[in-house]
Amino acid sequence: MGKILLLVFALLWPVFSAQALSLTPAQQEKVPGIAQSSYWRRLLHYQKTLLGGEKSTVDGGAFFFSPDGAKDPQAELLAFVEALGSDRKIGKLAQTISCAFPERTRFLQKELGLTLAPSSCPKLEAYLQQFNAASVTLVFSSAYPSNPGSMFGHTFLRINAKQGSDPKKRAKLDLLDYGISYAANVGDDQDSGIKFAWNGLMGGYIGQFSSLPYYAKVNEYNNSESRDLWEYELNLNEEETLRLLRNAWEVETNSYSEYFFFDENCAYQLLTLLEVAKPEWTISDFAIYVIPAETVKRVAQVPGAVKGIRFRPSARKKMLSRFGVLEKREKAEFSSALATGIVPSSPAVLDALITRSFYIKQKSKPEISPEEEKLLSNYLIARSKIAVPERPGAPLDESSRPDLSHNSYRVGLGSGIATGQRTNDKLAFAELYLKVAYHDLLNSDLGYTPFSEINFPSIRLRTVPKEKNFIVEEFEAFSIVALNPFSQLEKPLSWKFLLTYYQPKDLVNCNYCHLAHIETGAGASLLSKDEKVVFFALALAELEAGSELTKGYRGGPKLIISSLWNPVQKYKVQLAHSTQTDLFQSQRQKVFFLWELKNSYALKQNLDLRLEFSYLQKNRNDARDSQGMRVQSNFYF
Amino acid sequence: MKRILAVLVLASLSPLAAMAGDGGGSDGCGLGWQITQKKSFLATTTRGTTNVTIPPTFGMTTGTIGCDAHSFAVKERASVEMVVTNYDALKVEMAVGSGETLAALARTMGCSDASMNAFGAMTQKNYSSIVGNNSLEMYENVRAQVKGDAALSNACAI
Question: Which residue of A has its CA nearest to B47?
Fold first, then answer.
């Protein structure tokens, strides 16, 4: 009888083992608590929605075992546990469920006291072995030169490898660590610039985690793109790092998230991974947008989170550092070498020429000329014959460090006096200024690309008690300014774009009307010898539209000449003169001049004070002139 | 909200889009080949955060795409990929005889920490014969030099 039962059992075993893993009553009791726990919800990448609910940011269905898995943590937990009993293969790598979802498995096994058959996960093991994880470093890459839009930067993780067991090879070589980065997978087709941007902004690309050796990332950012890298060594231990890696595996080998430039971007995904590693951290709750530099700040502000910070300068900064340490006659030798093609014999001059050629080569598309290539080759050969170490370079510019920057949202309270609209008297006003992001020319440049501006959007609300209760003084939709000073080594373009809706000061019968305004153009900037003053001139085309204008629109060329002085870190002052023309109106003032003097003083990292004067000068009797002065205090958060 | 911001960003940046370049390794071998750099202005702006790459399959160890055509032992692949990806940077470090990338290369070739200085000095001394016409030649030259040097062949494991 026993043998028959045994036989029946043996024959039916596949049926038994394929059945759902069922929970004991004691385990079932624990389920609601575990399902609602923040750790379980973090593993599922749940995020609060605008309407107050929660939903997973993972978009691919294969991440969930319950049809409601994206919104119902308990349904997902139960469905997952049930599925754990089966031995079916799932996901992009055809793994068993416990191998495809190792962190969920580990967590639930521990919390619920599940008994699972031991299994091996060769692909997971190979992945983890590649990292040989000990801890994590958060890496931030700063802006491109000449491109304020990239001021937002990019973040990725470097997984610090454990020391090897060989006592002769114990030095930690960061370049051989592996990094994890989240990026939009744009596939093989080269989208046009606009399509690429649209897809990036609207979730048209799938975001993917990828893993590359750190040396590839350093080469890509420092060299090819000439961006600084800032490394923040985090206080994560081996187990925490493994949890992070396992959760990334869960997302990447089974599913995907759509990539959104503004909020579900590289930086955001890393924060969610760090929140799995460190359940006590709450760092991914950003409103409206997630700017990578701001995420670094958020992590850096967690007490004890950052153990150390290291700076890797861009190829451009290395060039400036090598050049900056040359003596006067060596600089002359440098210039004459460039002019004549002669290969100098001084190692310091050679090093400066080499870093210059290297920088130019990296940014040249698609490559430098054969002559330049030959010169670089000659410099290198000449240098290899001089067994002298490199001279220590001039101090590097470390002001791109992101955690020192002012925050990006702004509220300003101001008051001032300006020429009224209905009279020519000077009337008092009060203002409220709100800006969503990011950084203007008068802000302290600490943590930002110097001499850059990118604002979107902001609104200035004004009340003039004697004339008008409330007016939208200006709604600035988007503003971007890039001032790239000429130097002995480069002559780049400076440029500006502005789209705004504002209350003009020069129209006679305006009475608090509004105009839409767009301007764009380019020019040049020069930096003073002490690098504290930038002078720039921009030639722009400008167009305005509004019902108050005779033809409904006006516009023409515009010239801005300005100097921006930053004598000490905290204080900036700008003097600007604009010549604006109106080519389309025959009866109206054709040319008018605007003078502006703006002061900014940074009292703290997130508090500054502004004092501004403006004078719009008329040059016809039937036109208006207008003067104004404003004091404003700005709070950043 | 996203749409409005998207339109604004595009409206401002579209006039300035210039065209793309392409980066990567030399012969189709190694990791550099997988990194596509879009250099158009618009792309570089959003690249600041989108970081355009075609990621190697997450679950697989370092990309060896394109290396099959050349004859390297499996254990050499890490070194080969390093040289292919960092060809230009290695040239600069070899010309001065030291550097972080050189040290990392030495480690991938199994060299002990103590031999790093000698490794660097060797590359500088023999720079002209090591540099080669492309990264694969450089790798093969370095390998030959290490094998031919008594101290280094002892200290390294190739």
Answer: A150
Contact in structure between A469 and A490 (CB atoms under 8 Å): no
DSSP codes joined into one string, A540-586:
EEEEEE-TTSTTSEEEEEEEEEEEEEEEETTEEEEEEEEEEE-SS-S
A435, with CB counted inside 10 A (0-12, 13-18, 19+), is buried
Q: How far apart are CA A149 and CA A172, in angstroms?
A: 35
For chain A, which residues score pLDDT lower than 50? Answer: 15-19, 587
- Inform me whether the C-beta atom of residue A361 falls under 8 Å from chain B C-beta atoms: yes
DSSP classification of residue A604:
E
Cα–Cα distance for residue pair A542/A132, rounded to 1 Å? 57
DSSP state at residue A122: H
Cα B62 from Cα A130, distance rounded (Å):
8
Q: Cis ω on the peptide bond leading into residue A366 (within 30° of 0)?
A: yes
Low-confidence residues in chain B, pLDDT < 70? 1-70
Contact B104 A173 (CB under 8 A): yes
Name the residue among A185, A219, A497 with its Cβ closest to that of B54. A185
According to the model, what pLDDT value does residue A549 have? 83
Say how far apart CA A204 and CA A184 lie, in whole Å.
Answer: 9
Closest CA to A78 of A63, A90, A66, A95: A66
Q: What is the pLDDT of residue A85?
A: 85
Of A117, A147, A158, nearest to A16 (Cα)?
A117
Task: Report DSSP letters for A280-312, one per residue.
Answer: T------SS---HHHHHHHHHTSTT-EEEEEEE
Total number of residues shown for chain B: 158
The token pair that represents A92 in the structure block: 């992009």
Instruction: Identify the pLDDT of residue A18.
Output: 46
In the numeric block, the tokens 């105009």 are attached to A515
Q: Do B42 and A197 touch (CB under 8 A)?
A: yes
> Which residues are CB-contacts of A507 (< 8 A; sequence separation ≥ 6)?
A513, A548, A549, A624
Q: Say if the Cβ atoms of A130 and B62 lie within 8 Å.
A: yes
- Return the HEC string of A215-245: HHHHHHHHHHCCCCEEEEEECCCHHHHHHHH
CA distance A557 to A540: 6
Rounded Cα distance, A526 and A523, in Å: 11
- Beta bridge pairs of residue A526: A486, A535
The letter for the amino acid at A304 is G
For chain B, report the end-to-end CA distance as a whole number of angstroms.
Answer: 58
Q: How far apart are CA A54 and CA B115, in angstroms?
A: 56
Q: Tokens 């030399």 label which residue?
A: B26
pLDDT score recorded for residue B35? 40
d(CA B150, nearest CA chain A) in Å? 18
**pLDDT for residue B19:** 25
With CA atoms as reference, report the closest residue to A504 among A393, A403, A580. A580
Residue A586: what pLDDT? 54
- Using an 8 Å Cβ cutoff, are A134 and A174 in contact? no
Select from A519, A594, A527 the least CA-distant residue to A563. Answer: A527
Residue A608 token pair:
């500054």
At residue B33, the pLDDT reads: 39
Bridge partner residues of A475 (DSSP): A459, A501
Q: Of A217, A312, A131, which is closest to residue B34 (Cα–Cα)? A: A217
Contact A325, A244 (CB under 8 A): no
> What is the model's pLDDT at position A345?
94
How high is the pLDDT of residue A117?
A: 81
- Rounded to whole angstroms, the Cα distance separating A227 from A22 reads 54
The Cα of A440 is separated from the nearest Cα of chain B by a number of Å equal to 16
A249 in reach of chain B (CB within 8 A): yes
Which chain A residues are within 8 Å of B62, Cβ to Cβ? 130, 213
